[in-house]
Amino acid sequence: MKRILIIGPAGAGKSTLARELKKHLRIPLINLDQLYWHPNWVRPKDDEWKNKVQKLIQKNEWILDGMYQSTLDLRIPRADTIIFMDVPRLICLWRVLKRRIKKTQVAPGCIEKLDLEFIMYIWNFPKRKRPGILKSLKKWKNKKKIHIINSEKEMWKFLKDIKTKNQL
User: Fold this and answer.
1) Radius of gyration for the chain, computed over Cα atoms and rounded to the nearest angstrom
2) Longest CA–CA separation in the chain, Å
């Protein structure tokens, strides 16, 4: 595990998993939200974003934390391990609500927001995004290590297994 891609809906636990993996594996962590969003939730231009991602994935080791489907076609081929945080949407919504209450900063100048568009994105993720992700992962199953994590309990078990393997 040298180039790890962590994907899934907002609130699924991607960043928590990424931080823990960084501790255990000592691989640089790249939080895509931090790089994508400009202050006040301004999006980058598509070509600017794709160029930035293209440069990031050329590195030998990384943990990439973030969904951003527009660049999955760049990131998946370069990753050796893909982790899909396939967590129930109610849990995702609850976690995002907690982040909003705590006024968590997602990126510089971007406090967690909770508007109807974002709520609908999370709510509709299982129906609109999940099937395409699973189809894509199926295509890569013989070429990549793929892990699908469905709960916080599974995530902690996965991390415990990683820690055990690294101590051998």
Assistant:
1) 16
2) 48
Q: What is the CATH number of the domain that holds 71?
A: 3.40.50.300
Q: Give the model confidence (pLDDT) of 90-125 as tens digits.
A: 999 999 999 999 999 999 999 998 899 999 999 999
3-state secondary structure of 39: helix
Distance between CA 12 and CA 163 in Å, rounded? 21
Number of domains composing the chain? 1
Please state, as a whole number, how many other Cβ atoms lie within 10 Å of the Cβ of residue 79: 25
What is the C-alpha separation between 114 and 107, in angstroms, rounded?
15
Range of the domain at 60: 3-167
The answer to whether 65 and 31 are in contact (CB under 8 A) is yes
10-69 confidence digits (pLDDT tens): 999 999 999 999 999 999 999 999 999 999 999 999 999 999 999 999 999 999 999 999
Structure tokens at 94: 């609850």
Q: Which residues of 3-23 are buried (b: 16+ CB within 10 A; e: fewer)?
A: bbbbbbbbbbbbbbbbebbbe
φ, ψ of residue 106 to 5 degrees: the values are -80, -40
CA-CA distance, 122 to 88, in Å (whole number)? 10
